[in-house]
Specification:
The complex is a heterodimer. Chain A is an alpha+beta fold. Chain A has one domain: Archease domain (Archease, Possible Chaperone, Chain: A, domain 1), CATH 3.55.10. Helices cover 25% and strands 39% of the residues of chain A. In chain A, helix 1 packs parallel to helix 2. By secondary structure, chain B is of the alpha+beta class. Chain B is globular.
Chain lengths: 138, 486
Amino acid sequence: MKPFEIINHTADISIKAYGKSLEELFENAAFGMFNILADLEGITTSTEMEIRVEALDREELLIEWLDELLFNFYTKYIIFCKFDIRELTDNTLTAKVKGRFIGENKNRLKTEIKAATRHDLNIKKKEDTYEVQIVFDV
Amino acid sequence: MNDERHGTFEKIDDYRWRIPKSFMSGMRVPGIIYADEKLFEDIKHDKAPQQVANAACLPGIVKYSLAMPDIHWGYGLPIGGVVATDVESGGVITPGGVGYDINCGVRLLRSNLTEKEVRPKLDTLVHALFSKVPSGVGSKSNIKVNEAEERKIMIKGSLWAVERGFGTKEDIEHTEEEGCMEGADPDKVSGRAYERGERQSGTLGSGNHFLEVQVVDEVYDKDAASVFDLALGQITVMIHTGSRGFGHQICDDYSKSMVRCLSKYNISVPDRQLACAPVTSTEGKDYIGAMKCAANYAWNNRQCLMHMVRKIFEQVFEAGPADLGMSLIWDVAHNIAKFEKYNIDGKNRLLCVHRKGATRAFGPGNPVLPQDYIALGQPVIIPGDMGRNSYILLGTKKAEEETFGSTCHGAGRVMSRSAAINAKERHTLLKDLEAKGIKVMAAGRDTLAEEAPYAYKDVNHIVEIVGKAGISKKVCRMKPIGVIKG
């Protein structure tokens, strides 16, 4: 199982993320998003933080999670690359995330993402794998 | 045709196609797409027509859900979408109809310089612009503001910069809304947006945002061009950017809260990215107050950037402002919701006009236009891709009658970013551009390939269609010679 793949979208960038569990799906979605933002090849971590979000339902929670990471990327200048979801319900999420300050890693940066959108967002389960397609405004 | 589509598209005339209400259940009005036969052939295979139909389901929508010829698949409303809702009849406002980059827009400056004078110094100029104008992912501005100053930016827009000596009052007169929407409410802006906005005034961003040095290479309307003080061979500068992380955060905050409004106001939309609230509701008013803050932030951002550009030109060409004559021709917003009055079925109605990847295009005589342009109509600035052309058009009376005073905003993409990166033309891209006399510098690793000319529709074709449909009129065409990408 691939963690995610890039899906062709005319104006923006879209990914399809996969996971054997919902936790893994959420982690892979975040990993996919940071792969668009930066080159994560061989990056090591030097900082970590805890993320907690709440939302109306599972889809909203996914957007909240991604937007929370984006907010921290833009305000704390951290490229996140390791995502560990500790607790996940339909409405709440707690995770420990690790990454590296942009600082000397500026040459890793690729494409600015404005936001993760709600367009056609639908978490599905096919056999034993969860999947979701997410459109990012870039 | 995929399964979600019912019925067929109807050809109205050579430049207009109808999506009938039978296309999808829940449509309150038909959709209309501006395109010729050739362009429509591509459009109908994209997901964009579905998004035109989705927008036709918004409560209070008036007449039709519109799309300009540069239409392409976006989120919520398609790019190129225009939707007007009736404020006094339960009409809604949707953040997904404005977009994350609130008041993304374009401004165009003229200059006294000619291509002959600029060519020998082009490398120096492009390097200076690239090194001094903050661009790219996560770039920081030299202008850092505290919360109190940020509130002033939200309320004053371009005037904030002008009061600091970053421009003149003439710049303000040549900016849509005079660079400031009334009714901006900084109390409706989250702490997070404040935080993201404190270091981004005077930054270009990345993606399709750019700064271009151009040459006028075709004049279609000499009289109008002379009002803009433009002639063949003259140098212009175009700046394309928006409200940066500040606006993105506001759209984010309100897209979330509007999802909760759907059940509260018993509204059903086919896409959550079209989550909305009645314009007159508390939630609607709060979003509008915050959206206007972002719109004003964007105008101030473009004003700050323009000031930097003028200073860099003065240094490179060792000349003063009077010699260079770099006055602002016009600044347009192309991601915004505006309140405008239109005659609908014989009645004067106040409408909330969403333009997402569409430009206001008011015709001659419109009272909001400045004195020097009122006889002409509103200038419309259309950026193309970095290898082809850009345009100055004029708005028309017909646009006011037919498209809620709107026209296209650019070329529109035709290829996804990943396909553009993998295209074989990528390998010769820089060489091909150089062969055309275009010097390009980009901050992002893949930006250049993502934004390559082959990833875009031909802007010349798009402009031809809005011209023939009568919703705009050509004045001048420019070609790029120096390009800075984020």
